[in-house]
Amino acid sequence: MSKPEFESYCHHNNRCGLTGSSAFFASIPKSFVMINGPLWCYFYAMKHVDDENKNAATMFYCTQPSPASLVYGTEKDITDGLSYVKTVPGVDRVFLMNNCSIGLIGDDLKGIARKFGGPWPVYTMDSGGLKGNFEKGFANAFLRVVEEMKPLPVKPAAVNVLGLSDVSLKGREDAREIRRILSMAGISVISTPGCAEDWDTIMKAPEAAVNLVARDELALPAAEEMKNRFGTPYLQVGLPYGYEGTLHWIRQVVEGCGFGNPKAVREEVDRIRPEVMRRGSYLASLWGSLWFDQVLVAAPPSEAIGMADALRNEWLDTANLTIHLQMPTTYHTDAADAVRTLPKDDALVKEDYEQWKGGLVLSSSEETANLERMKKPFASVHIARPSHDELMITDLPLCGIRGAAYLYERVWNAKLREMR
Known about the structure:
- Helices cover about 50% and strands about 15% of the residues.
- It is α/β, with parallel strands linked by helices.
- The protein is globular and about 70 Å long.
């Protein structure tokens, strides 16, 4: 990781590899996350999980190594931490991680845990900004769990959905919607690692006939490893947004898997979409068409690409649609007039902000905060974390059939707020 990238993740966005690893491990019920490092790293990792998991504070521990530990090693700090975990009820496993600086010491985490001999298995790894960003940490933690899987008989017409996360904005809701859509198509879901899936269910992942990769940046390494270990093929399908986008997604899944039937999904879309669009047409007769001079979509690749397609092909009209991707991707869309990738295109991103004259922004709070500081006008819909200035507590997803109506509603309301 380059120095600018490291400083950005560690000191500004708080989304380093340690945060990503913690998010994956903490998503597994009855797991305990122990961070071998300073409180600075612990609080940021724990808080990122705490925003979506009210129990985060009870499942994290920080060893807080002393200055002497940086010279003589952190064995005593780790042992004290594991002794504390023994007093916590309901723990089935411990995930022990070094942060960046402690990882440079070279302590034998596995050996220390084995010597302690607790009543639960301890899984260890190094993590932190020196190991990469949030997505890299999440992917590495996923790989660490894949190491514990064993070959199992394959079940027909069954899949895993990889790359979902319960710390994503509406992550749990999106996972439920994706499961629902697949079930309608006659496809059973064995596991969704990273999204509140229990350990035993994750360990059944090798039973799947196919792995569906919803977010490459979070799960492609795990999908490739499972293919090497178990021969499980995988499909890079992204996330389904909008009605047409959802129908395209399920057709892609059925054709790629060689099983399932999209008929029931299509019938539900045909039943629901006309009423949703009728309501939008009524508003258009009062206020004019759903038009924005400019549209900016800033999010991780799967969200940004799928959302841009739905916006331009189904929901609204615009003179210019720009995508700011938070990381590189192999996904492509013809819906965007310009695509920037951070941090490679920082200069172009800066120029986009400077030339912004008003329009719709689908993003996190970071992008809207930038526009506010620059005193730029905009209408906002949050589709990614962090979301500090918009409250979302319903059980509605952003993706799939239910998500299509929810997003269409939110985009229209953003338009009406802007006009008034």
